[in-house]
Amino acid sequence: MRSEIKIPINNNFELYFDNWVNFKSKIQKQYDDRLITSIYYDSENFTTAKDNLAGISNRCKYRIRWYNDESKNFNYEIKIKKNNLGKKLFLKSDHSLLDFNLLFSNKNDFLKKKENEFFLNYFSYKNLIPKMNVSYLRSYFVYQKKIRITYDRKISYKLINKHSLKKNTMKDFMNVIEIKFEPENTSLALNLIQNSNFNPKRFSKYLRGLHLFGISNYL
Which of 117-131, 136-150, 157-171, 188-202 has the highest mean pLDDT? Predict the structure, then answer.
């Protein structure tokens, strides 16, 4: 399991991040930028969102994700949080994204395959439905080959709720830096943050989207 520190910043201060990356000679760009699209799943009454807001130490988040415009090559993902550490289970789909309503369901034949039962067991007793579509542009960096840094911007949210009468898409004025590392590299990560002008805070794109639509009280 790994640690993850998030730093939300107003997109008007994007230059701060650019200057920080340019100043730190040991921060190197790792990959080309990618557009990421995720669809988050939750119960009808937002159980996973409520667990996160309440600070439940052991919790999961469920989503599918694809990169750029390649929705036919999507991944199933479960983010598992235990206290301050987390890990991600992922499963590459072998089918096109035709109807995403039943993907996290016992009715999904792909997940009922024997080799995929480990994934299904994490939520087989839950009734999960799509709640939020989140898309953003991500840049990838690495520090001393030990600390992963991602920078997400142009974040937009689309509520998946046919009963909602509200505007269906929201664009965020916040960007977010995510710093990810193994526990043994904690001192190195904290030193990196201390030498910046950034203040770590809790940040969940899913909860942020719910907040912007007036469904939850968050950032």
Answer: 136-150
